TrEMBL record:
Taxonomic lineage of the native organism: Bacteria, Bacillati, Actinomycetota, Actinomycetes, Mycobacteriales
Major site of localization recorded for this protein: cytoplasm
GO BP annotations, alphabetical order: phosphoenolpyruvate-dependent sugar phosphotransferase system
InterPro entries: Dup_hybrid_motif, PTS_EIIA_1_perm, PTS_EIIA_component
Protein name per its UniProtKB record: PTS glucose transporter subunit IIA
Domain PTS EIIA type-1 as annotated: residue spans: 21-127
Source species: Rhodococcus opacus
Cellular localisation: Cytoplasm
Transmembrane parts of this sequence: none
Keywords: Kinase, Phosphotransferase system, Sugar transport, Transferase, Transport
Gene Ontology, cellular component aspect: cytoplasm
Amino acid sequence: MSLSVQAPLPGRVLALADVPDPVFAGQMVGSGVAIEPARDRGALDVLAPIPGKILKLHPHAFVILGSAGGGVLVHLGIDTVKLKGNGFTLLAAEGDDVDAGDPVVRFDPTEIDGTGYSAICPIVVMDSKPDSVSTDTIGSDVTTGDALFDWTAP
């Protein structure tokens, strides 16, 4: 099984080690990368990075289970669960089937900046082994829908 994961939002790609959260930085949830969101576009529609079913949907995070298996978590900001949904708009529903590129959540990273929380968005393959995704895009700028990384189950 393998997944080709697209950038769910525009910004600069960072290593998970650079995420200001020990769970993501330590790859305890899974391997992946993070995106420091673009700040010059206002509110951003965060898109499904893979085709599949929305397994979990919260205002600040969602998991899509790929059709071949394998789930991808997109987490919008760090500790943003504490905002209780403020600043986030759901554009899809839990259980929806989505194609890569379908809108799931809308948020404005500059609003998150104003709360004191980090707007960095980790994108990880759930339960994958540490350092198991390709990280060629780290340090580059991506636009929504660009190839972000590939992952192949061991």
